[in-house]
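Hello support,

Our group uses your service weekly, and this is the first time we've seen a run hang past the timeout. The protein is phosphoenolpyruvate--glycerone phosphotransferase. I'm not sure whether the cause is the sequence or the server load. Input pasted verbatim:
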Amino acid sequence: MSGHVGIVLVSHSAALAGGLRELLGELASAEVRVVVAAGTEDGGLGSSYELIARAVVAADSGAGAVVLPDLGSSVLTALTVLEDEPRPGVVLVDAPFVEGAVAAAVTASTGAALAEVVAAAEEARGFRKL
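Update from on-call engineer: The timeout came from a worker crash unrelated to the input. Re-ran successfully.
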């Protein structure tokens, strides 16, 4: 495999996911592909099977990709996409949206393997702020 592990941000809100992508752009290496699959194709709130499927392909540069959904139907839609269109090296991660994405992006920036990036995102669940 080559390249860095990519990240797919799946959210009901394009603004929310776009803001998170902007943050990750400041924290992560430019080699980490961060792709947004957010909202519906007509710009509304929701989740789109097609947008998620395209984002998964775009995020994977050969080292795999982690898919981080925000909540509810974005989780279910992402799960359905990955069941219908399985790709080796693409993992749906059960992690907090912001903290998990930050941990994944920073870890991916180091050139870490997919398993390490997945673990970093999942471990973010235990981060304490205070």
